[in-house]
Design brief:
mainly alpha; Flavocytochrome B2, Chain A, domain 1; 2 domains; four-stranded mixed sheet; 16 helices; 4 strands; about 55% helix
Amino acid sequence: MSKQLTFKDEQQLLEHYEADKDNNQVVSYQGNVYDVKEYMPQHPGGEEYISKLLGKPIDEEFDDAEHTKSAKNLMKDLPMIGKLLSDKDSTNSEGEKEEKEMNVGSLYGTKMSATLKEKLNIDYTKGIMYQVFKANLTFDEYVLYINEPKHLVNPVRDIRLFENGFLELCSQSPWWGVILAWLPAIVYFFYNATQQPSWDSPVLCVALFILGMLGWSFTEYFLHRFFFHGEDHWMHYVPHNTWVFTAHFTIHGIHHAFPQDRLRLVFPPIPGYLIGYFMIIKPCSMVVPENYFYISMAGWVIGYLLYDEIHYFLHHSSPKAGYWKDMKLYHMQHHYKFGQIGFGVSSKLWDIVF
């Protein structure tokens, strides 16, 4: 809609929404009327938080939810279709002050300096890994960049990491891709497990399988906390240079910088196979007796698949209540509010233990 509309009051806004809701899903914030139709499925908390407020001002609910400044900045990138005159009090000096604070562009958040914005100057229509590499960021600048969640909206689109098509393919996967990729490995482990003496003891097999799943659960927590979040741990003990930052960005930094990128919520199968084999499967096969190895490894791989699918589910679902609603809130808080806690994704077990 090229020409912006003017709504004299909330009732007129609601009437417009009811008459045109197939084309535009609108809300107003600080007097601006936004079309959120494309963005709603990407909302980290679930689209029902927006859908129940369609055709209405969201100022009170938005502020009560204690959104971060990066979330407030996102509003500037949404398609704005008009103004709500009755919300003029929301755009008083306080709103104008907040607008002035957003002096570096909504994609970067209010905490970033204009100098950092200039150093990055990333073109999000192209592969961003090399652009991050050549930005020559300091450690503090890099950490600030990855910990300001960004959403590409208007239109909603995915991130491109590499310009090279093969590398880009290796760096992403749809949610079902990892299932197809790892099913042969699961069949392989189960088949070899049936050839072992332990297969004759159902209790032992179940115990080993559960032990394997618990083993993955601990691996998930350990990797996420101490390896993926290297900015809080190992990166303090290695040279701070663009090679280190870019490597970390490829591993996990990109996920925190762009948490709703749907093709990077599960681990890509090709690097997953390489890392899984050389860092986990092969070393374990050398120390765990063959009689116990295959069935426990089947549990480990299934635990990994459940983790990956749960991770995708938490980012792109809207559970209404219960355990999954709680886990979604828990994980979204890790991304948007408390990045140094809440490392469990499929469960809170090891967060509680440690």
